[in-house]
């Protein structure tokens, strides 16, 4: 229901702004730009889905091998005490626990291509025990919000863009991003826990969260001792070794149990193709709405209003130059990336705005894209409170990014 209102809002506001630009400003091209955007974004949505087909086919097959060989069950057992409290409605022996763990791990390593198939697999497994097939379950909402918070340990792609645009130290945003995304994830977790009445002061939850915090602190310390070239090399090598290591563990355990690994892969891979096709309408719907909103100039209106409001209150508005990235990120990953690059080109990669834009890019994830893809893959239309909680995580990440950027770069 929330997506319905948001979708209508994007089109309605876009139409009003475009009409104003036509009648008052004499802009005769605005509606042409909006219509062109609908075609372009429809094509983009299809191409994204098409691009996902191969990756989904691969990882759905790998996940099936892991299930047959028992690797997923082993992973589920490792985090079962923690997930049993975060996902109380999910059966303890559900294979979704393992899929959730692998998805979150892939996200933290910045391996988006691997994370999405694992996340879709987790959603399908949770949907199997969902009593209301058209409405999101508590477990699915918790999982989705943890995804939208964008917890990332190694933001390799952002560092690469900074290097390409001439940053003196491309890795100087590493710790700020890690801190901002941590606060974003924590805010999302707390928001969902309040809705679901989950006791976050449970000793097991505190122990796991404490362990994760210590791990992140260790990662921050280790990478802070490396030079910029070493950070990129180590993060790339470590991420891919871990990922390929998981594949080998899955295959090895299945082979040890005398499972026909090839047949298991083919069986799972078939699901990947079907899933990719299923998400096409959901993805195109949200991307077209975002494209129209942007092409109409509504995004520029929002930006101008925010800038005037901040300056009118007498606050420093330097951070507003980077705000387009933050506002675009929940809507479109590629759009936010474009905004980030544009900010660095306009103000400089080592400017305050340039660094903050990079921090925004790494602090959260594409909330509406994730909602469209993940819920669309299992046919859920009633997202309940998933969108508000996801946006709370986004807002926390944005606020944290601004504060942290002033501490590190101002």
Structure commentary:
This protein has one domain. Helix content is 78%, strand content 0%. The protein is mainly α. It comes from Odoribacter splanchnicus. This is Nucleoside transporter/FeoB GTPase Gate domain-containing protein. Keywords: Membrane, Transmembrane, Transmembrane helix.
* Helix content bin: over 70%
**Uncertain stretches:** none
Number of domains: 1
Number of helices, counting only DSSP H or I runs of 4 residues or more: 18
Which percent band covers the strand fraction? Answer: under 5%
Over all CA atoms, what is the radius of gyration? 22 Å
Structural class by sheet pairing and helices: mainly alpha
Number of DSSP-assigned strands: 0
* N-to-C span: 42 Å
Largest sheet: none
Protein name: Nucleoside transporter/FeoB GTPase Gate domain-containing protein
Pfam families: Gate (PF07670)
InterPro entries: Gate_dom, SpmA_SpmB, SpmB
Keywords: Membrane, Transmembrane, Transmembrane helix
Short description:
This protein is mainly alpha-helical and 410 residues long. It is built from 18 helices and no strands. Helix content is 78%, strand content 0%.
């Amino acid at each position: 229901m929330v997506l319905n209102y948001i979708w209508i809002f994007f089109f309605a506001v876009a139409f009003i702004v475009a009409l104003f630009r036509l009648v008052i400003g004499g802009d005769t091209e605005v509606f042409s730009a909006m219509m062109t955007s609908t075609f372009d974004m429809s094509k983009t949505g299809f191409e994204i889905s098409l691009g996902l087909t191969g990756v989904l086919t691969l990882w759905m097959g790998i996940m099936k091998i892991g299930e047959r060989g028992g690797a997923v069950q082993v992973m589920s057992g490792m985090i079962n005490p923690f997930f049993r409290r975060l996902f109380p409605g999910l059966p303890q022996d559900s294979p979704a626990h393992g899929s959730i763990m692998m998805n979150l791990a892939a996200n933290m390593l910045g391996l988006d291509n691997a994370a999405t198939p694992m996340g879709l697999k987790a959603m399908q497994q949770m949907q199997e025990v969902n009593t209301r097939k058209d409405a999101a379950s508590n477990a699915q909402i918790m999982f989705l919000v943890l995804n939208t918070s964008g917890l990332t340990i190694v933001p390799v792609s952002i560092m690469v863009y900074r290097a390409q645009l001439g940053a003196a130290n491309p890795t100087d945003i590493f710790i700020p991003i890690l801190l901002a995304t941590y606060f974003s994830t924590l805010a999302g977790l707390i928001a969902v826990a309040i809705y679901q009445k989950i006791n976050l002061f449970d000793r097991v939850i505190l122990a796991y969260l404490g362990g994760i915090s210590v791990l992140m602190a260790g990662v921050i310390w280790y990478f802070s001792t490396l030079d910029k070239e070493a950070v990129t090399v180590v993060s790339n090598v470590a991420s891919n070794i871990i990922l390929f290591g998981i594949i080998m563990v899955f295959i090895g355990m299945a082979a040890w149990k005398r499972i026909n690994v090839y047949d298991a892969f083919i069986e799972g891979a078939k699901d990947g193709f079907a899933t990719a096709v299923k998400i096409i309408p959901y993805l195109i719907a949200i991307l077209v709405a975002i494209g129209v909103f942007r092409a109409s100039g509504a995004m520029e209106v929002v930006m101008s209003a925010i800038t005037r409001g901040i300056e009118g209150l007498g606050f420093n508005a330097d951070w507003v130059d980077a705000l387009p990235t933050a506002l675009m990120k929940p809507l479109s990953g590629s759009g936010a990336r474009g905004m980030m690059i544009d900010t660095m080109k306009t103000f400089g990669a080592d400017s305050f705005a340039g660094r903050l834009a990079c921090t925004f890019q790494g602090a959260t994830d594409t909330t509406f894209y994730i909602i469209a893809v993940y819920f669309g893959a299992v046919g859920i239309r009633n997202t309940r409170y998933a969108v508000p909680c996801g946006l709370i995580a986004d807002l926390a990440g944005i606020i944290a990014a601004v504060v942290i950027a002033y501490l590190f770069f101002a």
